[in-house]
Amino acid sequence: VAEGLECAEVRELFPELAAGVAAGDERARALGHLSGCPACRREFAGTAEVVDELLWLVPEHDPPAGFESSVLARLTPAAPRRRRPRPRLLWAASIVAAAVLAAGAVWWQTADDRELASDYRHTLTVAHGHGLSAAPLLLAGGGETGTVFAYDGSPSWIYVTFRSAPLQGRYDVHLLTTDGRRLALRPFTARPRATAWGSTIQVPIEQMQKLEFTRSNVPIMTASFG
Amino acid sequence: LNASESTARSSAEVTKAPRRRSIQPPARRWQWLATAAAAVVLAASLGAGSVLLATAGDRRLAAGYQAVLAQGRGAYFLAAPLQATQGRVGTVFGYQGQPSWVMVTLQPPIQQEGRFQVQAVTRDGRYLPVGDATLGGARGTWGGRLRVDLAAVQELRFLGPDRRAAFTATFDTANPWD
């Protein structure tokens, strides 16, 4: 029984033995058994013949370095790798971030202007107008004595505030236009408490060139527009 | 090639590959950095430029308005509809500055001329005289100086001879910047 068992064990080693890849101790044990067992020797001769023929099918060249490990790596489930962000994606994100940051900075920087414009636009909407202009009112000597406000709307008007009360008396007021017209407006009578004057005008603001307050045809106060 | 030569070449390729990146020439690296910096600057310029373009109208309007306020030593300019029993008859303009003033225009013109006492009702409940106005007929406008801040004025009233308000204008906001 013991010999029978040994034959079965040795025959299991025949493929490795025939291919020459059996471990040293197993190879020695098997060869020792074959020398005294004609049946196993015959069996082994058949196996060796088959293996020899199979070896012809093996490719001539060795697989490249790393082939074995790469195959094994594919067979074993890969450990979850930490994904590195792609450089192109990073660059795209950086460029978008730069654009958004710059846009945000300009948006923040122009907040006051936008708010101012919004309130101004609201005022103009309420008044059905297009804009308000202002120009300094100058004395003949050159000193500033007030401000002329000109409103472009429906109707358009001029309003003058005096910083110091003008010399008392009656002033003729004329509006000179860019196309050379000289339009007479409502006269202004300066009194101690008269510190402003206003009138509607029939020309667009952009055609206003000069406003004159005259006495005896002598300009006393003037304001230039444009 | 025999098997051993092939193996040797493959091993050499495997060991050479990572070295190739580390020995990138400095000139090429600078070129890459310059390209990257240019891309970022271009993107930032485009972002800023698009917002500047989008807000150009507002900035131009604000600049014109600021120029008016600077010239008129002012802070803001308001408008309110002038109401009568029959509805809107004109507009009251208010200017907060040095000095502050109000200006009234009638639109459409009123045929009959009338004399009014102009009164400002302040937000804290005071009634302040502003002046005497003649409106209607050939007089389509009237203006007067305010003795208080425009911010303090809630309503402007034009009182007729019977002391009743013929026209009123309400400033809905005290100060647009608040």
> What's the arrangement of strands in the largest beta sheet of chain A?
5-4-7-8-1-2-3-6
Helix content of chain B: 25-40%
Largest interface: A-B, 56 and 59 residues
Given the structure, what is the number of helices of chain B?
3
Order of helices and strands of chain B: HHHEEEEEEEE
Beta fraction of the residues of chain A?
25-35%
Radius of gyration of chain A: 54 Å
Strand pairing plus helix content of chain A: what structural class?
alpha+beta
Helix content of chain A: 40-55%
For the largest beta-sheet of chain A, the strand count, sense and barrel status come to:
8 strands, antiparallel
Q: Give the N-terminus to C-terminus distance of chain B in angstroms.
A: 87 Å
Mean pLDDT of chain A: 86
Characteristics:
heterodimer, A: 226 residues, alpha+beta, eight-stranded antiparallel β-sheet, B: 178 residues, 8 strands
Describe this structure in words.
Chain A has an 8-stranded antiparallel beta sheet with strand order 5-4-7-8-1-2-3-6, with no helix packed on it. In chain A, a hairpin with a 4-residue loop joins β1 (131-139) and β2. Chain A has 226 residues and is of the alpha+beta class. Chain A is built from 7 helices and 8 strands, in the order αααααααββββββββ. With 178 residues, chain B is an alpha+beta fold. Chain B is built from 3 helices and 8 strands, in the order αααββββββββ. An 8-stranded antiparallel beta sheet of chain B has the order 5-4-7-8-1-2-3-6. In chain B, a hairpin with a 2-residue loop joins β2 (87-97) and β3 (100-106). At the A-B interface, α6, α7, β1, β2 and β3 of A face α1, α2, α3, β1 and β2 of B.
